[in-house]
Amino acid sequence: MLTNEAIEVHLTYLRTGLDAVQAALPVLRDKIDLLSAKIDSRNASSTNYKAGRDAFDERMDRLTEWNAAYKRIMRLLIPSIVIIELAFIARTLGWI
To answer: Is 0.70 surpassed by the pTM of this model?
Structure first.
């Protein structure tokens, strides 16, 4: 069993430790707030990156669609031009 004096000594040490913890709390809260702000900033950057990436992907999809349409048109247009040119040559040579 502890004496009252021993309990008082332990309580004094505990009070000193508690005072140190309470003194450190504002600093720790400031650091937590700073880290939270950094995390929020990174989240905003990540959101901006995702939005930019989505816009880029959308543009690439449109470009891919345009490229496919261009290829379809060229597949039809080039043979048509060749036929017209052959008809023009045949007419010039008097074959038609």
So the answer is: no
